[in-house]
Amino acid sequence: MKRSTRRRLVQGVLYAVLAALLLALVLAADWADIKTQFFASAGWTSWDSWGPLITVGAKNTIIYTVIAFAFGLLLALVLALMKLSPLGPYRWLATIYVEFFRGLPALLVIIFMAFGIPIAFQWTPPGGTVGAGLLALVMVGAAYMAETLRAGIQAVPKGQTEAARSLGMSSGRTTVTVVLPQAFRIVIPPLTNEFVLLIKDTALLSVIGMQVGEREVTTVARDFFSSGPTAGTATSLVQAAALYLVITIPLTQLVAWLERRQRRTR
Amino acid sequence: MSTPAIQVKDLHKSFGDNEVLKGIDFHVDNGEVVCVIGPSGSGKSTLLRCINRLEEANSGQVLVEGVDIFDPETDLDAVRSRIGMVFQQFNLFPHMSVLRNLTVAQEKVRGRSKKESVEIARANLDKVGLSGRENVYPGHLSGGQQQRVAIARALSMDPDMMLFDEPTSALDPELVGDVLDVMKTLASEGMTMMVVTHEMGFAREVGDKLVFMDGGVIVEEGDPREVLGNPQHQRTQAFLSKVL
User: Fold this and answer.
1) Do B154 and A265 touch (CB under 8 A)?
2) Domain carrying residue B162
3) What are the extents of the domains in chain A?
4) A163–B85: do the CB atoms touch at under 8 Å?
5) Which end of chain B is less enclosed by CB atoms within 10 A, N or C?
6) What predicted TM-score, i.e. pTM, was given to this entire model?
7) 3-state secondary structure string across B104-154
8) pLDDT of residue A266
9) Do A185 and B108 touch (CB under 8 A)?
10) First-last CA distance in chain A
11) What local confidence, expressed as pLDDT, does residue A212 receive?
């Protein structure tokens, strides 16, 4: 058999297998159940469902993400600069922090901050239970972003620092004026990725008790599981999934575009 | 005799076990143009970088206008702001426009007003033949243009002396001339200059003194036309026979 004939044959078989699998899936699926369970019109066409999902859930998801990202980035910047400090103890502290929180499940930290700390110290972080959960997201997110920022800072060529210092700029001035602006440009794509991860991680807050007005998308959707127009079906969860994708897919596309552009300008 | 612009005494520098400077003594007088030549790895760039302490020497002394720059009490940033430095790789700030490259240190280090630093920047851009490029970003300039901007950036600090670290080595051959012309103008205006270079023509034409380095020591120094035309030392002869 000729090499090209054999290659066409192999490809034909692969396509046939795929087509057979899809056909089996379509035939085996219970389309009636899928429609009533996941796409109940009482949910998809009703503002009673979309209203709370969007005006409460999506709104809070976005607010929580922005808060956790902003404070996380601030803490991450401090950690990254500590990690690059000439003073040993600063480096060690930052390393311990980063390794500690990168090695823990975010869920565990959230529960610890929301329940463990208040019970241990009779003290609740500002913002109550939600505040405690957000604080946990900040602490965990900062550990990841600190590594990203450190890599970005180190990716700025050494000649940039040398040029700034030779002009008489102090070390701090050089960092602020010359190094950090370039480092941030380098880390915009990975930081956007961290942002997307945070959007999804806010769903973990649903394990802590939240007031009705504080709930984010996943918690709102879970409530509709037990009460509301689509109670007893998973419709609200599928709606929530659609909301997440509407937010996250444009962002991941943005990251891909930024990365392509960055490669071009190098 | 007045204080030399740069005085180097018994300078030693090692990278790990590799000693790249093995006791350097030399000086640059005010208004003098000193060119340093030598094979790669001879320590000439390291010597230049030790003078504004971008490289930390192991022992010895560097006096800039009489000020000991290894003294912990010396305000190093202040000394550096009086020494213009031009790098092989230009090292312009890519996130700033050409004008901002020239004004940022004037404002942040010299404390000049925005208006004054812009005026000085424009004058220096004009001097290097790049008027009208104020708002361009360095990435859109040719290597030769970038190096001229880098020279203008250093000049905008009104330095007392200029250090050049192989300023034309990263340039395409047809762009070297423009950069050398700017340097010749500077020399003719009486700027104190120390130039690490492979441009023998420039050294011969513009240099007041030529220093030949090899293996971490100064092998020979003197009038450029003398050293290039009639080298005394065998190592100098061997090097020149390869590059001339």
Assistant:
1) no
2) 6-241
3) 59-214
4) yes
5) N
6) 0.82
7) HHHHHCCCCCHHHHHHHHHHHHHHCCCCCCCCCCHHHCCHHHHHHHHHHHH
8) 47
9) no
10) 47
11) 81
CATH number for the domain spanning B101: value is 3.40.50.300
Q: Say which of B77, B87, B108 has its CB closest to residue A163.
A: B87
Chain-centre distance for alpha carbon B100: 22
Q: How many residues does chain B have?
A: 244
Beta B83-86 vs B161-165: how paired, if at all? parallel
The type of residue at A240 is A
Q: Which residue does chain B place closest to A170, by CA atoms?
A: B77
Note the ipTM here.
Answer: 0.92
Tokens standing for residue B31 = 């208004």
More confident residue, B236 or A209: B236
The predicted-structure confidence for B163-218, as pLDDT tens digits, reads as follows 999 999 988 888 898 999 999 999 999 999 999 998 898 999 999 999 999 989 99
B1 in a structural domain: no
Q: pLDDT tens digits, residue range B103-145?
A: 999 999 999 999 999 999 999 999 999 998 999 999 999 999 9
The amino acid occupying position A215 is R
C-beta neighbour count of A125 within 10 angstroms: 17
Q: Looking at the DSSP assignment, which residues form a beta bridge with residue B26?
A: B8
Contact B212, B38 (CB under 8 A): yes
What tokens appear for A264 in the block? 């071009």
As a whole number of angstroms, the distance between CA B177 and CA B175 comes to 6
**Chain B nearest-CA residue for A160:** B91
Tokens for B76, please give them.
Answer: 């190093």
What's domain A59-214's architecture? Orthogonal Bundle (1.10)
Give tens-digit pLDDT for A198-226. Answer: 999 999 998 887 888 888 888 888 888 88
- The number of residues in chain A equals 266
Overall number of domains in chain B: 1
Q: Residue B1 pLDDT more than 70? A: no
Nearest to B108 among A163, A173, A185 (CB): A173
